[in-house]
Amino acid sequence: MAASSSVLSLLRAPPALLSDHHRSPPSSCFIRCSVPSSSPVLISFPRSSRLEFTVPEKRKLAATSPLVEYSIRDPIPPESGDVDEPIEPIEPLKLKLLSVVSGLNRGLVASLDDLQKAETAAKALEAAGGPVDLTGDLDKLQGKWRLLYSSAFSSRSLGGSRPGLPTGRLIPVTLGQVFQRIDVLSKDFDNIAEVEIGAPWPFPPVEATATLAHKFELLGTCKIKITFEKTTVKTTGNLAQLPPFEIPRLPDSLRPSSNPGTGDFEVTYVDGDMRITRGDRGELRVFVIA
């Protein structure tokens, strides 16, 4: 380190050593540097044009000993137009979005400020990822995805902005994990929700998994249209031995116009482990591969 300090001090030396190169320097000069546990090091500056460098010419000062070598270089300034615009890296943006939504219980406890922060983080990642085109790479959707966040859940309804079971004390429903299972070959699109329904004392709560089966199709480059088919409920926990049962579907004439059984959303970001979608009612959803 002592040798390095000595070299650095040369860069800050008085003009007589570095700047006043118009006068004829001696044929060579030697500066004695002390390096602990080794013999003195001599730094030699021979008569040459080395002290007469001009930008953008490279300059180099080196101190060499039997143990170490130090080199200091000044980079050549880049020519104008050679530097590309910096591209914001994807991974930090993904981590930022995850940190914003991770403590919001899928969005059920999100405040207005939380909603805005999630929206801002998602837009930054969408912009960095660029437009999504699934026409030649639909396999990106394949697999089971776990829902981390839905802006619609802040409405305190398990149906989001659509009709659904309310969360609260009147109907003690606790939402567990939520998944989307997508098969690009069969065009199956299943929304799977784990729920826990409270029961009167002394009975334990009822645990169940509800699967809302859909078919899907790709519209354009990134829009997905889903069509509802059926809902299947399978009890778990203490009642896991019961067979699954299917909830009858209401006739179309009796179904509310706000829930016609179809919907669509856009995939605005997708990679091997994260997906962002925007629903037809403005819902922002963030998924990670399960």
What does this entry look like structurally?
- This is Plastid lipid-associated protein/fibrillin conserved domain-containing protein.
- Pfam families: PAP_fibrillin.
- It is found in: Plastid, Chloroplast.
- With 290 residues, this protein is an alpha+beta fold.
- It folds into two domains: 2-73, no CATH class; 90-289, Beta Barrel (Lipocalin), CATH 2.40.128.
- Helices cover 14% and strands 34% of the residues.
- It has three helices and 13 strands; from the N terminus they run H-E-E-E-E-H-H-E-E-E-E-E-E-E-E-E.
- Strand 1 and strand 2 form a beta hairpin.
- It starts with a helix and ends with a strand.
- Mean pLDDT is 75; it is low at 2-35, 41-45, 48-78 and 157-165.
Structural class: alpha+beta
User: Overall 3D geometry?
Assistant: globular
Largest sheet: 8 strands, antiparallel, barrel
Assembly state of the chains shown: single chain
Strand content: 25-35%
Average of per-residue pLDDT values: 75
End-to-end C-alpha gap: 51 Å
CATH topology tier name of the largest domain: Lipocalin
Secondary-structure element string: HEEEEHHEEEEEEEEE
Radius of gyration: 33 Å
Total number of helices? 3
Roughly how much helix do the residues carry, as a percent range? 10-25%
CATH architecture type of the largest domain: Beta Barrel
Determine and state the CATH class of the largest domain. Answer: Mainly Beta
- Name the poorly predicted regions: 2-35, 41-45, 48-78, 157-165
Q: Indicate how many domains the architecture comprises.
A: 2
